[in-house]
Amino acid sequence: MINFTAGASNILAACKAAEVGTVVTSRAFIEKGRLDAVVAQLAQSLTIVYLEDVRATVSTGDKLARLMAFRRPLVDRKPDDPAVILFTSGSEGTPKGVVLSHRNILANVAQAAARIDFGRRDKLFNVLPVFHSFGLTARHDPAAGLRRADLSLSLAAALPHGDPS
């Protein structure tokens, strides 16, 4: 996840540190966030992929194929495999990153569930951004099965160089 509030130079530094070559986002988000200037700077060094463009390439056959294989992951992952890299804003120098594994994120979910009494019928209103570790955890709680109305906006996922998937 990219902290879109960090500014272009800090975003570029974070992408360089994480060896990110492609940023996936949406035109609607860029417009609503007034991030045109930031994205223009990023586009000089990174490939920008817009979800609206990807959506136009997904056929009915693609959708049916994924529906038939919905229980199979696109990529096999182990609990200790990296799930996300979160970066500081860079307010005290170059942004620093931390890699969270799938196990880390699920442990955070379990910790929150141990302290907060919620169930499948509850709704969670997450005001934390997804580039913040708890904002990401609250958003991705598969155990609770919560429906979410999420105030936070994300620039989207970033892919390492050479990974087109």
Structure described in brief:
With about 160 residues, the chain is α/β, with parallel strands linked by helices. It has 7 helices and 7 strands. Strands 2-1-7 form a 3-stranded mixed beta sheet.
What is the secondary structure topology, with strand pairs?
Layout: H1 8-17, E1 20-25, H2 27-32, H3 36-42, E2 47-50, H4 51-57, H5 60-68, E3 82-87, E4 97-101, H6 102-115, E5 123-126, H7 133-139, E6 147-150, E7 158-160
Parallel strand pairs: 1-2, 5-6
Antiparallel strand pairs: 1-7, 3-4
Helix pairs in contact: 1-3, 6-7
List keywords for this structure.
165 residues; alpha/beta
What count of helical segments does DSSP give? 7
Strand fraction equals: 15-25%
Unreliable stretches (pLDDT < 50, length at least 5) are 139-165
Mean of all residue-level pLDDT scores: 77
Going across the biggest sheet, name each strand in turn. Answer: 2-1-7
Instruction: Describe the sheet with the most strands.
Output: 3 strands, mixed
Could you walk me through the main structural features you see in this protein, from its secondary elements to its overall organization?
By secondary structure, the protein is of the alpha/beta class. It has helices spanning 8-17, 27-32, 36-42, 51-57, 60-68, 102-115, 133-139, and strands spanning 20-25, 47-50, 82-87, 97-101, 123-126, 147-150, 158-160. Strands 2-1-7 form a 3-stranded mixed beta sheet. Strands 3-4 form a two-stranded antiparallel ribbon. Helix 7 links the parallel strand 5 (123-126) and strand 6 (147-150). The two termini are 16 Å apart. 19% of the residues are buried.
